[in-house]
Task: structure prediction
Amino acid sequence: MDLDLRKLRYFVAVAEHRHFGRAAQALFIAQPVLSRQIRAFEQELGCRLFTRTTRSVELTPAGQQLHDEARRITTVVAAALRRVHEAEQGAQRLVIAFSPGLHVSEAIRAFTASHPKVGIDVFPLRWWEQDAPLRDGRAHVGYLRHPFDDSGLRTVPIGHETKVVCLPVTHPLAGRRTLTSADLDGEPILDVRTRRTSSLEEKFELIASGQGIALVPVSVAGSYSRPDLVHLPVTDALPVETCLAVPESNCSGPARDFLDIATATLRDDSGDETGDAGPARPTATAAAAGTAAALSPPRASVRPGRLPAAAPSGMPRR
Result:
């Protein structure tokens, strides 16, 4: 069957408003028209998308799955239409995606200085997305953290980040300066395997309320510092690799130029002296010790400001 994008857009509106009347107002159509379109859409798909009562509208399991897929589909279509219009106008635009806690502003400034006619958009990634926007066309270049599926992508290592454990200030371990993985045995860890959250803000709110703990990169801890949380180095936690990534099918023109400029800029920011092999990767213990030194006594919590530099890494790889 052919997917009717207009009906899909109507479905998304009802799913987000959970109300046919409010969705119809947002779409600037009459409510009876919207109701008929949704019923026709359900008949075309062969499944119910909503459970309707006189007081509420809720998504069925099939509706929830379609809503998850629809947000990606509508975003991809919007990105494709934008590229079509830019091509018709002869415009050049580069979309830079970046993981939470990572910063691309210095690289963008350096790129814009030599490419003033290329428009720049930034795309903040949700923590679970990683490479998806590079694959579906929403972004041209990404500043990411491993692990992610790098098949079909050209990746350029930038550096390494240590991980810290995020705890509520009331936690029995909160007064320690450093921890090991053994100290965390038996603790409820909030990660994608145990409890998927929609945002880092939601995750940190759960941690602050005593629902669990989490291991996060040190730059994330600094970007989301709050007084009811502490962040402690875990001395035997392995560092996380940061890298730039572009689709191998689109590694040319402005994307390639940005990759070259951003590689030099971001490595300079992390203290990298590029060479054929690059400096050796630091051990987890040494990296965590550096983090501990940068955290403020008496409690080793990360506060806003300049964070410990990422360890340098090697040269581009495929």
Observations:
- Residues 61-89 form the longest helix (29 residues).
- The chain is about 40% helix and 20% strand.
- The two ends are 38 Å apart (CA to CA).
